[in-house]
Write a structure and sequence with these properties.
The complex is a heterodimer of chains A (about 425) and B (about 280). Chain A has helices at about 30-45, 80-85, 120-130, 135-150, 165-175, 195-210, 220-225, 245-255; strands at about 5-20, 50-65, 70, 95-100, 105, 180-185, 210-215, 230-235, 235-245, 260-265, 280-285, 295-300, 305-310, 320-325, 330-335, 350-360, 365-375, 380-385, 390-400. Chain A is α/β, with parallel strands linked by helices and about 425 residues long. Chain A folds into two domains: about 5-245, P-loop containing nucleotide triphosphate hydrolases (Rossmann fold); about 260-400, Distorted Sandwich (Coagulation Factor XIII, Chain A, domain 1). Chain A has a six-stranded mixed beta sheet, with helices on both faces. In chain A, strands 12, 14, 15, 17, 18 and 19 form a six-stranded mixed beta sheet that branches. The chains are: A alpha/beta (about 425), B mainly alpha (about 280). Chains A and B meet through helix 1, helix 2, strand 4 and helix 3 of A and strand 1, helix 2, helix 5 and helix 14 of B.
Chain lengths: ~425, ~280
């Protein structure tokens, strides 16, 4: 994408250590200090339970001019810490950062807004805090008011504003900063949808006009929509850095909740009722060549569901299969050995049966999916209702393969099949 | 295009360079503080005059009926030197109080945006000067009313003297503001200290009211020199008995400014971590 030249932001071996436990991070009184030092003297440092906590450990990366870089990771991964270091709010314990040009950081919208001051007064103060000169604020004032859609309320104290107005005004100021490097933390997670879109468009414009943007968010959609590259932080270290869609899928794969690719009756809380003719023993997911996997599978590896059930008296109207859901419980399909004509079916045996089926993946969007046991007897009641059965597995599918280079966002739709298009001669 | 380097021990740059670079922000901090202070008040900025005036009237009309206080010039009614004392004192007390709380009160901004951390303290010390000079204008009304002749050249000493008061508030303000970030005890200790100091400073009495043996103690507070000197230059009241005492005040001022700056510098990098 961007030709690799001098990095605008260069981060080298940055670490940040906090001492937790004995040293509280909030206000502590003189009394505590004195009590602490007396205790310290008495115990000779035995039980000074000072615990080190590395919020960041040896973080290295460069950001180039005109690039929009997303920083993702779960809570406590160090995302905010790195932004605070880049914004010069806190200093690193080790390492060095070099930034070329003017930096503006937006770790919060409306920093320094005072409820008693009018919108106009707050624009001037906030703009100044964020690094705008008086002349710049005066010059852009009308634009800011227009962007914020505040109109005539600009001379009303902001304490009378609705929360929406407050946020719009605050973001409008931020959007009119003109730095070389813009650092943003979750600032977009506010406001109504239309205004959010307006903000995203504005940020994209900034990036196109050669500004460098560093961006922390929990919203993978926004990251995929506006970032060229992404950094995935985990426990203060860089887990992965690179192309946004690859990093996002890795991140989702390692953080999706309750991913479990094996279910076993043994050791589970499943209780088999004696009147139920099909007794599940296990349900396992494996790759196309039969290798078991944990949590994540790539669509190219393929997916096989292996089902073991005990059936005392098999009948021809029994179907044993699975239902396939996305993580929002939308069923994509159900499948069983009775999907085909009677003569083509594999026959169930009395006693233990091992069934397996290859599930199609290449059309599916990336995300978490659920495979649940689905058994019934034709025109009778459910034997194992896939909506309720505890016999289920969940995995994360990585699928970055059907995104051609010229597309900068994912194709919309529940699935994304690659179909063969022809143009008539 | 400038390069910013961030590494351990590098936050906080050259004071004068940053002062020039961030002069507008200093102005906006002071401006905001001034604006906010009188919002939703009925008489607004008139409070700047009312506060010391009411105090002065209580002291001179009630207290001085029971106590004989001699400012050393029978032609000058005591209301004028007392009002002056209160003006200077108000700047000192309110300025130091605001400066000491400035970092804690602006914690939300300090943890979200970078700017040189001395700015809120400096702005608090500066904005008090506006109050002072508004209140100062009443001096001319009082002088005309009581037909007291002011020494017009002597009046000009208000500028260097207030500069001294400003340095005192800024220096001590840095010290207390830094302590306040770590130890919120400052919030309780400071008003108490101020109340004690009000009586131990010749604000509503002349220093000659007390035996000369304790004068040096009062002169440890630079405000004593500032008030006594201005009364001397502007109203022609007696000069300090010993000029060494004024030097003592100056020494305190310099030491406080030095300690305040050094302590602040050593801690400012951690404000966002512990605030």
């Amino acid at each position: 994408m961007s030709e690799k030249k001098e990095p605008v932001v260069s981060i080298k071996g940055v670490s940040k250590r906090y001492i937790i436990g004995h040293r509280p991070n909030n206000s502590r009184t003189l009394r505590d200090v004195m009590a602490g030092s007396i205790k310290g003297l008495l115990s000779r440092g035995e039980n000074t339970r000072q615990e080190e906590f590395w919020a960041l450990r040896n973080v290295d990366f460069d950001v180039y001019k005109g690039e929009t870089l997303g920083i993702i990771g779960s809570n406590g991964a160090g995302k905010s810490t790195i932004l605070k270091i880049l914004s010069r709010i806190i200093e690193p314990t080790e390492g060095e950062v070099k930034i070329q040009g003017r930096v503006a950081s937006l770790l919060e919208v409306g920093t320094g807004f005072h409820p008693e001051l009018t919108g106009r007064e707050n624009v001037f103060f906030n703009g100044s805090v964020l690094g705008m000169s008086r002349d710049e604020i005066v010059k852009r004032f009308d634009e800011i008011v227009e962007f914020s859609e505040i109109g005539k309320f600009i001379d009303t104290p902001v304490k009378f504003y609705s929360s929406g107005m407050y946020v719009r005004l605050a973001f409008a100021i931020a959007a009119h900063l003109d730095p070389d490097v813009l650092i943003i933390d979750e600032a977009l997670a506010v406001g109504d949808v239309n205004f959010q879109q307006k903000c995203i468009d504005k940020m994209r414009d900034s990036a196109r006009s050669g500004k460098t943007v560093l961006f922390v968010t929990h919203s993978m959609n926004i990251v995929e929509e506006i970032c060229d590259r992404a950094v995935f932080l985990k426990n203060g270290k860089i887990e992965m850095i690179g192309d946004t869609s690859k990093v996002v899928s890795t991140y989702l794969g390692t953080t999706s909740q309750n991913l479990e690719t094996t279910w076993k009756a043994k050791g589970s809380s499943y209780v088999h009722r004696p009147d139920n003719p099909i007794k599940p023993i296990s349900l396992k997911l494996a790759t196309g060549d039969g290798k078991p996997f944990e949590r994540t599978v790539h669509y190219k590896e393929g997916l096989v569901a292996e089902l073991v059930v005990d059936i005392e008296k098999p009948t021809t109207d029994m179907s044993v299969g699975v239902s396939f859901y996305d993580e929002f419980n939308n069923r994509l399909f159900r499948t069983s050995q009775t999907d085909v004509d009677t003569k083509d079916r594999p026959q169930l045996k009395p006693g233990r049966n091992k069934l397996s089926v290859e599930l199609p993946l290449h059309d599916l969007r990336e995300g978490a999916f659920i495979v649940a046991l689905d058994c019934d007897v034709y025109r009778k009641d459910w034997v194992h209702n896939p909506y309720h059965t505890p016999v289920r597995t969940k995995f994360f599918l990585q699928n970055d393969g059907t995104k051609p280079a010229q597309w900068d966002i994912e194709r919309e739709g529940l699935t994304k099949p690659i179909l063969e298009w022809r143009v008539a001669d | 295009m400038g390069t910013v380097t961030i590494k351990p021990g590098r936050l906080g740059g050259n004071f004068f360079k940053e002062l020039i670079e961030y002069r507008e922000l200093v102005y906006y901090f002071a401006w905001r503080e001034f604006k906010v202070r009188y919002k939703q008040t009925a008489i607004g900025v008139l409070w700047v005059i009312f506060q010391p005036l009411l105090f002065t009237l209580v002291i001179t009309l009630l207290l001085f009926r029971g106590i004989a206080v001699d400012f050393g010039n029978p032609l000058i009614p005591s209301i004028i030197p007392v009002y002056l004392g209160m003006l200077f004192w108000n700047y000192f007390e309110q300025g130091l109080n605001n400066a000491s709380n400035s970092l804690v009160n602006n914690q939300a901004i300090i943890t979200k945006v970078y700017f040189p951390r001395f700015i809120p303290v400096l702005a608090a010390a500066l904005v008090g000067l506006v109050d002072f000079f508004i209140g100062f204008s009443l001096l001319f009304v009082l002088a005309a009313w009581y037909q007291v002749a002011l020494d017009w050249v002597g009046l000009l000493t208000v500028f260097p003297l207030m500069f001294g008061a400003f340095l005192l508030v800024y220096g001590a303000g840095l010290l207390f503001a830094t302590l306040n970030v770590r130890f919120r005890d400052v919030k309780f200790a400071l008003p108490f200290m101020m109340r004690v100091l009000l009586f131990a400073t010749p604000v509503f009495y002349p220093i000659t009211f007390l035996p000369q043996s304790v004068h040096w103690l009062l002169y440890l507070n630079p405000m004593t020199s500032i008030i006594e000197l201005f009364r001397h230059f502007a109203l022609g009241l007696p000069a300090p008995v010993k000029w060494e005492y004024v030097a003592l005040s100056a020494a305190t001022l310099v030491i406080l400014l030095f300690i305040g700056t050094r302590y602040f510098r050593s801690k400012e990098r951690q404000f966002a971590d512990i605030a």
